[in-house]
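Re: beginner question about structure tokens

> Can someone show what the tokenized structure looks like for a real chain? I only ever see the sequence side.

Sure, here's an example I had lying around. Input first:
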Amino acid sequence: MKNILLAGLALILVLVTVVLVRTLMFTPPAHEARTPVALEIDRERVAQRLAEAIRFRTISRQAPDAGDIAAFEAFKAWFGDTYADALAVMRKEEVAGHTLLLTWPGTDAAAQPVLLTAHYDVVPVIPGTEEDWQHPPFAGDIVDGVVWGRGALDDKGALVAIMEAVSLLVEQGFTPRQTVYFSFGHDEEIGGEKGAAGVAALLAERGIQLDWSLDEGSFILDGLIPGVTKPVAMINVAEKGYVTLDIIAHAEGGHSSLPPQDTAVTRLARALVQLSRSPVPGGLDGVTGEAYESIARHMPFTQRMAFANQWLFGGLVESMLTRLPAGNAMLRTTTAPTMLSASIKENVLPITATATVNFRLHPRDTVEGLVEHVTRAINDERVEVVARRGTPASPVARTDTQGFNAMATATRQMLGDVVITPGLTVAGTDSKHYGKVADNAYRFHPFIVGPADISTVHGTNEKLSVDNLMLGTGFYMHLLTSLAPEAVDTQGD
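And the corresponding structure tokens:
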């Protein structure tokens, strides 16, 4: 008995030692320390230009009206006048009527080109919430170092930062080595099916394959990741797919005064409960694992211990992340019932009851596999699963490339000590189109956002600080001037 006890204690000691050693070794890799680089950027000019851009009501609707079209035309005229000097060294084209495609020729015609993108269409303001805005959503007010208005963060701020960077570099006589394309979309908020898709088709038709593209996606996250005190620059390397399924329950119908024990509605309700109890399997592998591998190294000891020893604590880590909406979205394909329909009248039992469920597809999953999972989870032959639309997740871009490293370097040149990590875009962007003509498609906004900022995107009181505009403009300046293969930095953290 004593020998068994001693053996058990020895085993525990070995286990504790392994856990502690692995935790102590689980630290951020060393990278070259960088002091933020100050740039000569006119704060007032940059802020004023974003304010002007916001005042154009370039609203994307499924069925645009004449007023919307006029706003897009006015924005294009403003863009041409405002950035005339920069456009003088570029070729400017319009795709699908309103998307702007610019070509800045590089000095090395043999070098593979790159693409920077943004979009200037915006979502409508929710009717009835206009009075909730601290400043009118299309006034473009600049108050206390903040530019207010719809589109400030999504995505006119990025467009202005890009063009201000280009303008300053043109003033300095700079010409990139690689040809740089710029695409400024007009219909991203409704899928980019004409603008970005048209640009990608046009580039493909011309035989142009991009080295990399950079679109919106994530931000520099401040206070959004529990336990991490440093800003986290999440350069997203993939984008989730988009799948919508109709879950249709069938029954006989009839008069509501003589209801059977089981109706189409009750069958549908059971199906949705079964679906909610059977989430698509997740996991800390692939791009998800790579992201948390980078971030967790900057967490406090206890969290680092859990991530460093997933062979022991993996189940606990996944359970903790699943309880957080953002963590759960990184782990798996998400399930979101969004629409319900059944009877045509309150006293009529429906023949069918339908739930529309939206899924954001993780790169590890397929549309076909998802349909099989949902059918198996519901397990009721009286309930039909019909795919309404399905777009697979994007390919996963590499992190050991000149493009990713140039973005990491530019971020450090602006902020110094910042966590660089790959990530996964859980919503949709125009990169689903641009990625078709790019070896690697990245998704990243060089703006610092905190918990209070996220809800303003597509919501109320959207705004962007002038400090962020300066940060973004500087980032794009550094990125454009560091395209040469030798201008790289240590990958990730």
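Each token stands for a local structural state, so reading them left to right follows the chain. Residues 2-25 form the longest helix (24 residues).
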